[in-house]
Design goal:
Chain A: It comes from Ensifer adhaerens. Chain A: Keywords: Sigma factor, Transcription, Transcription regulation. The complex is a heterodimer of chains A (179) and B (239). Chain A is mostly helical and 179 residues long. Chain A has helices at 3-14, 18-40, 43-60, 71-90, 110-114, 123-127, 132-144, 148-155, 159-178. Chain A is globular, with a radius of gyration of 19 Å. Chain B has 239 residues and is of the alpha+beta class. Chain B has 2 domains: 6-61, no CATH class; 84-238, Immunoglobulin-like, CATH 2.60.40. Classes of the chains: A mainly alpha (179), B alpha+beta (239). At the A-B interface, helix 2, helix 3, helix 4, helix 5 and helix 7 of A face helix 1, helix 2, helix 3 and helix 4 of B.
């Protein structure tokens, strides 16, 4: 996907241009369908999700602003969110965000975290600073849309251990990206 | 400083929740809570945006797979419906409008000649409930069979083969004698499906009416008359 072209098409779509919408679909649907297939693992559901995704893209194109995100990433985020909503509806996961988070980690200094700087590092370099299995868990959570329980099963660790792995990894990544 | 302040803890907790949301590990309920907060908390929304942008390079892991054509038809149906009595004006620039207009004149001249030469080939008296027309064009990549059910007002168009470029729409026209062609709507992108004929036009479809399909800019003719080449046409006869 070439972001400039896609951003231009999104601009036209936001004005109700159906030609632009068809062209946007032609250029971007294989990638977004790939996302749906990977997360949902089922063609029928992936097609259904893709339909919802492009309805949302048509409705939300006006909210895309260049500079906020690359156009391709913006579309991929809509697709991932839709696919993850589908899979969580099919395979429910435990609620966690109202519980206590164990984030104690002497390596991460909140004062450093609070400093907002231009991000000089790519995520790949920061992923290499994580232990290998934790980096792998972060990547698979994202790419496959796995829940904490599924990740715990895949990596054969207790659920709470997996939660701690991912949460501390997220803090380390944040700290690394801003270093 | 080695002990996180309560503020620091909340900040870190928010960063983690934003990251968990973008990773996708949260439950459906938790996702709705995060989204509710996104709408009201700009700082938190900025954290989510930042994770979205940081992690987007993982998107490279997704291999593209071309979806089946029916998916786009379903999207078009859901968004636009196909019931349209007249074509929507295209907002985009149509660079070769003059060319298409020239083609349109040529096409309609040909159509009228053919229409005249075909007169009398089919039964013209009709009280039957349904009509059928086989639409075909010389050297055309597409043949269509149109069935009109007078009771329901549904005009069903079935392609025998459809291989038109995706960026174009197929628009269906009704021509009675020397009257100007009336747009019956744009066929779904696959060339398949039904068009509900507006009630004002139903009485005008009878044995002897000519149905034609033209290739138009996506979304239909920008001018209200056929602008592209006629790829198929035929006369309605009784079933």
């Amino acid at each position: 996907m070439i972001d400039e072209d896609i951003a231009g098409l999104l601009g036209r779509v936001s004005l109700g241009d159906r030609d632009a919408f068809a062209e946007l679909y032609r250029q971007t649907s294989p990638k977004l369908f790939g996302i749906c297939l990977r997360i949902l693992g089922n063609r029928g559901e992936a097609e259904e999700a893709l339909q919802e995704i492009y309805v949302k893209i048509w409705q939300r194109a006006g909210r895309f602003s260049q500079g906020q995100a690359a156009a391709g990433s913006w579309l991929a985020a809509i697709a991932r969110n839709q696919a993850i909503d589908f899979i969580r509806a099919r395979k429910p996961a435990a609620n966690v965000i109202d519980e206590a988070y164990d984030l104690a980690d002497p390596a991460a200094d909140p004062e450093k975290l609070a400093v907002v700087r231009a991000e000089g590092r790519r995520i790949d370099a920061c992923m290499e600073e994580l232990e290998e299995d934790r980096a792998e868990a972060v990547r698979r959570a994202y790419v496959e849309g796995l829940s904490y329980q599924e990740l715990a099963d895949v990596f054969a660790v207790p659920l709470n251990t997996m939660r701690t792995w991912l949460r501390r990894s997220l803090l380390k990544l944040r700290e690394c990206m801003e270093r | 400083m080695t002990t996180p302040t309560p503020e620091g803890r909340d900040f870190r907790r928010d960063e983690v929740i934003a990251g968990e949301y973008v990773l996708g590990v949260l439950s459906a309920d938790d996702r709705r809570k995060v989204e509710a907060r996104l709408a009201s908390d700009r700082n938190f929304a900025a954290m989510v945006d930042r994770w979205q942008s940081n992690l987007s390079s993982f998107d490279d892991a997704y291999d593209p797979v071309v979806p089946p054509p029916r998916t786009f038809s379903a999207i078009e149906r859901q968004l636009f419906d196909t019931l349209r009595s007249e074509p929507v004006r295209s907002r985009g620039l149509w660079h070769s409008l003059a060319l298409w207009r020239g083609l349109a004149l040529a096409s309609f001249a040909a159509l009228l000649v053919m229409g005249a030469s075909m007169a009398g080939l089919f039964e013209t008296r009709s009280t039957g409930a349904s009509l059928v027309a086989e639409l075909s064009g010389k050297g055309s990549a597409i043949d269509l069979v149109a069935r009109f059910d007078r009771a329901s007002g549904r005009l069903q168009v079935t392609p025998v083969a459809a291989s038109q470029a995706e960026q174009k729409s197929l628009e269906l026209w009704l021509i009675n004698g020397s009257n100007p062609a009336i747009s019956l709507g744009v066929l779904p992108q696959t060339g398949e499906g039904e068009i509900a004929v507006p009630s004002t036009f139903r009485s005008r479809i009878s044995a002897g009416s000519v149905l034609a399909v033209s290739v138009e800019p996506l979304g239909g003719s920008p001018t209200g008359v056929a602008t592209g080449p006629i790829i198929a046409l035929g006369k309605a006869r009784n079933l």
